[in-house]
Write a structure and sequence with these properties.
Blueprint (H helix, E strand, L loop, with lengths): L1 H26 L12 H26 L1 E14 L4 E5 L14 E12 H9 L4 E3 L1 H5 L4 H26 L5 E3 L3 E6 L10 H4 L5 E5 L2 E2 L3 H7 L8 E7 L14 E6 L1 E2 L7 E2 L2 E3 L4 E3 L2 E5 L10 H11 L11 E3 L2 E2 L5 E2 L4 H11 L3 E5 L4 H11 L4 E5 L2 H10 L11
Parallel strand pairs: 3-16, 16-19, 19-20
Antiparallel strand pairs: 1-3, 1-4, 2-15, 5-14, 6-7, 6-13, 7-8, 7-9, 9-10, 11-12, 17-18
Helix pairs in contact: 5-8, 9-10
């Protein structure tokens, strides 16, 4: 009986186990059938799309590298002037500086040759001006334009120092420099051999018919008895040579015919516009570092920064202030280019007041105001006195000067 009982238990257990396996099998999730291989139709669609994607990417990469004959004028930066200023001793020790937070900023615009992709993006951007070679350079070369930009930047710093120091009562004098060709006259009735075809931008004239002409005053004196049509020989130092060697005997000789002044009939001229190479003579020296930046448009900002650094209090007043405009020795503020692009840079800098030349056109001022937005107040100024008055209205400290 014991044996039978054991067998019965064993049999019942086996039956139960089989039933459990049957239940498990019935409850299992049916596995999905194997995924079929991609159909020929799917491949016909996918492969062209993949090829197109890679082709578009390749075109974008090439377009971002290949340069085209297009140049841009785009928003640049608003940069503080004060950190760029340094004073060194001359016959006198430089005055003590009264540095303030912020100070005035000068504004730049970006220029350069574009890639094909940049040109497309520039045409889309409302604040970027895309130009052809002729629109950008006219009859000049890119290297000539760079020379003019650097030379005019040097001149703007010298004039700013002269105006600011004279305002503050220091003995300041402008000293004539070399006779450097900034532009050549290629309009009006040109002789067969004209300066337009003989002289190059950046060259230095050191003699006329063998007589040394170290300054424009000396050159004008040698032109006193000349007539239209006279042939003259200029001694010229090319831009690529050492301009410190001003010996007429070693300079290149250029023969040309004097032309008639397009604006003054009967008056003979060589046919070039000289660069402003005057330097300021001071009892100490002021330097403004502008490496790699060209153009004369920072003259007003430089002048205001020098005044701010050498007078008590904050000349700028509330908020951040930016300024653009050329500065003349008679304290007039002159028009500049790329005002709209500079207004964008001012907006991005967080400035709230932007001083600009009053001689800009109404269209330029309107475009600048749109670009700057409501957060920037644009104030046109015609003179340094106007600029100082605008800063005073902005809460700036008064300049201790009877001329204001």
């Amino acid at each position: 009986m014991a044996v039978c009982s054991a067998v019965t238990e064993s049999t019942d257990h086996a039956i139960d186990t089989e039933a459990d396996m049957t239940n498990i099998s019935n409850d299992m999730v049916t596995l999905p059938p194997p995924r079929p291989a991609a159909s020929a139709r799917s491949l016909r669609v996918a492969l062209p799309l993949l090829t197109l994607s890679w082709s578009v990417l390749a075109v974008i990469l090439v377009a971002s590298v290949v340069r085209v004959q297009r140049w841009e004028t785009a928003p640049g930066s608003a940069l503080a002037v004060a950190p760029r200023i340094s004073f060194t001793a001359g016959t006198e020790e430089p005055p003590a500086r009264d540095s303030t937070d912020g100070g005035v900023m000068f504004v730049t615009a970006l220029t350069g040759q574009l890639s094909a992709l940049d040109a497309i993006l520039g045409w889309i951007d409302p604040h970027v001006q895309v130009q052809t070679f002729e629109e950008r350079f006219g009859t000049l070369t890119p290297s000539q334009v760079r020379r003019l930009g650097y030379q005019s930047m040097v001149g703007s710093k010298e004039i700013a120092e002269f105006v600011a120091m004279r305002r503050l009562g220091y003995e300041a004098e402008l000293v004539e420099g070399d006779v450097v060709v900034e532009q050549v006259v290629c309009e009006g009735t040109l002789p067969a051999v004209a300066a337009c075809t003989v002289l190059d931008i950046g060259e230095t004239i050191v003699a006329l018919d063998g007589v040394s002409v170290p300054t424009l005053t000396a050159l004008s004196a040698q032109m006193a008895d000349r007539k239209v049509g006279d042939s003259v020989v200029l001694s010229v130092i090319p831009y690529s040579k050492d301009a410190t060697d001003k010996d007429p005997a070693t300079a290149e000789k250029r023969t040309l015919t004097l032309m008639e002044d397009p604006d003054t009939p009967g008056r003979p001229i060589i046919g070039f516009i000289p660069a402003d190479t005057r330097t300021v003579s001071l009892p100490f020296r002021a330097e403004i570092s502008t490496a790699g930046i060209g153009g004369p448009s920072a003259g007003l900002a430089f002048t205001l920064a020098l005044l701010d650094e050498l007078t008590a209090g904050n000349l700028m007043g509330r908020g951040r202030v930016a300024a653009t405009g050329t500065m003349s020795a008679d304290e007039t503020v002159g028009a500049i280019g790329a005002l709209e692009q500079k207004a964008v840079a001012v907006r991005e800098s967080g400035a709230t007041l932007f001083l600009v030349p009053a001689t800009q056109t109404e269209a330029e001022l309107a475009a600048a105001r749109r670009a700057a937005g409501a957060g920037v107040r644009i104030v046109p100024v015609a003179t340094l006195a106007d600029a100082l008055a605008a800063l005073r209205a902005n809460g700036g400290a008064p300049l201790d000067d009877p001329g204001v």
